[in-house]
Amino acid sequence: MTADRVGPLAGCSIVVTRATNQASSLSTALAARGAEVIQLPVIAIAKPTDGGAALSEAIDESVSGSYEWIVVTSPNGARLVADGISKQLVGGSEFSVRFAAVGPRTAAPLLAAGHIVDLIPFEASAEGLLAEFPRPSGNRNRLLLARAETAREVLPKGLRAFGWEVEVVVVYRNVATDVDAATLAAAAQADLITFTSESTVHRYHSLLAGEQVTPLDAVCIGSISGAAARDVGHEVVEADTQSVEGLVAAVEGWARSRVD
Q1: Which parts of the chain register pLDDT below 50?
Q2: Candidates 3.90.1150.10, 3.40.50.10090, 3.40.50.150, 3.90.1640.10; correct CATH number of 13-42+177-259?
Q3: Quick one: CATH architecture of 53-174?
Q4: What's residue 1's pLDDT?
Q5: Which of 15, 51, 70, 98 could disulfide-link 187, Cβ–Cβ 3.0 to 4.6 Å?
Q6: Using CA atoms, how far apart are residues 105 and 109, in angstroms rounded to an integer?
């Protein structure tokens, strides 16, 4: 532990399990507050097996007006959809599709690209989106659901039950990374671990190979990752908002509780 660290998280060692290309903002924020950050990216973001061909075709259909909605369920998916649209549209042309995102963090890449996100539910989850999603009206009942290769079936099943014709397109895959044994050992000795998705929980525990749950305390970005972490034995604090800021605030709350 570095002796000269200062800030509300000084003296705390915290594991960040996010993919490398996503981890910098969280790691930087925690380190700025005095934490010793152990970066242990347990997953990486990879292209779908078709190289993105299905997404390109679906976006082409969207531009031609085939879909009423495009629904995105993660920031990665939203970013890839926004990038694909920007490649398809020529000369600033527009199209009439509506966007829905499961939460503000997911909506951010679409908003940054200049798109209007018509539906961001109060509860940032698939269940929250279903609770607020409209039923189809008229003949336009097709929607595009852009998501990871491995995902819960709650959303497509629920949307189909409403009467929507749902086209599910895989826009990326979460794949396992090679993890350095020394870094994994250091992570097991940390005070706290952070999880930003259900997949990071499962991958981390596959690396433990049935050994004791360490560290015991976990801060999770939402209810889905929180439930997964509880299921494998962690004591969980959930962030109030699904964002880096919400996650950092939850970590600070956890640190305060240790000294109260």
Answers
A1: 1-2
A2: 3.40.50.10090
A3: 3-Layer(aba) Sandwich (3.40)
A4: 43
A5: 15
A6: 8
